[in-house]
Amino acid sequence: MDAGTRTALLRAPAASTLSSLGLAGLLSFLLLLPRPSARPPTSTASTASPIFLRTMASSQPQTVPCAYKTGRTLGQGTYAVVKEAVHIKTGQYYACKVISKKLMEGREHMVRNEIAALKRVSQGHRSIVTLIDYFETMNNLYLVTDLCVGGELFDRICERGNYYEKDAAHIVRTITDAVVYLHNQGIVHRDLKPENLLFRDKSEHSDLLIADFGLSRVVDDEKITVLSTTCGTPGYMAPEIFKKTGHGKPVDMWAIGVITYFLLCGYTPFDRDTTMEEMQAIINADYRFEPKEYWSEVSDQAKHFIDQLLTIDPSQRLTAKQALDHPWLQSAAPDAGATAATDAQKDLLPDIKSAFNAKRTFRKAVNGIRLINRLRTNEHVPNKDEIEKLRQSIRDAEDESNNLDQVMPSQ
Length: 411
What we know:
The chain is of the alpha+beta class. The protein folds into 2 domains: 15-149, 2-Layer Sandwich (Phosphorylase Kinase, domain 1), CATH 3.30.200; 153-352, Transferase(Phosphotransferase), domain 1, CATH 1.10.510.10. The protein is 39% helix and 12% strand. The protein has 13 helices and 11 strands. The protein has helices at 15-32, 108-121, 153-159, 165-184, 239-243, 250-265, 275-283, 292-295, 300-309, 320-324, 327-330, 349-377, 384-402, and strands at residues 64-65, 68-76, 80-87, 93-100, 131-136, 140-145, 187-188, 197-199, 208-210, 217-218, 406-407. The chain has a 5-stranded antiparallel beta sheet. A two-stranded antiparallel ribbon has the order 1-11. Helix 1 (15-32) crosses helix 12 and helix 4 packs antiparallel against helix 6 (250-265). It is globular and about 65 Å long. It starts with 14 loop residues before the first helix and ends with a strand. The chain crosses the membrane at residues 12-33. GO terms for molecular function: ATP binding; protein serine/threonine kinase activity. Belongs to the protein kinase superfamily.
């Protein structure tokens, strides 16, 4: 998600473009593509058997008719695309995450982690996307979830006529309440960001859902042994992830701190000109409530809430439950008493739009330059066979997902 998968259709590059980029260039291009996100109605819990992740080398495996038909593409990421899917018998529409086995080779554990996390929390909280079903074919793995048609969080904010601090507090309270449930169930999401927060439908009071559990983990204790690679989206990652000292539930709380800051001004607290500068700022928790014209009307309670989450030491960071009990979020509770009238608060929307658009334009230019430089300096020059094999794998996976009729039975 340049930062995320938009409601608008996102198309894969044409075959001719892939050929001109070459293997190394294609992989660089893929890394800049948005991560997939899902979209939502209501549905029943999954009763499917565990996925087996068979290899593509399997010879003529037995197949059974598929219960779904796929439709238009909703979003595209590095290893997967998200398509609209309809259940043939019921006519119910869902989001279907189509994961290429070839592109996920060596990362199969990520799919298992995502399924394990979603199975544990599906239908347990109104603000968490539900896993409906999952199955596999020769070339792809398929995860069927709620279809969220209400759009991403920030898009919805920008569509509003006005937006006040109390609205931000309500949104953050909804997210935090869902994270309390996740953590109580032993799940760390590890990729919380506005692009992974989707509305179920377009109604004014639609549920806001946490989606994209591709980096989530089920944990049996309070700490995850550090992985061989970092995880998450750089601007929302906690210091301990960069330091590789091991991480757990507190990384989600750091992300909520970054999201809160973003929702109050339209830019992230550690936004810098380069990734290295951004990482250094995160490690040192180097942020300020500036420029002052954006923050002068934001309450001290809101700033204190952010300070309590953007704390370097994970053990000193607010837990999800403690955050929910913070006075700033308590003011947004359903049973809270009368709060300050909205006409006593500043409309934050004009400043947020202005800041967000300025940062987005700058980032687009910088990312374009970085991609060109990466392609120019890449040491590996792919040969014809490498290019054709990758192109063929992409074609096979795409053709199969477009004409989904047979799937491998559960064993």
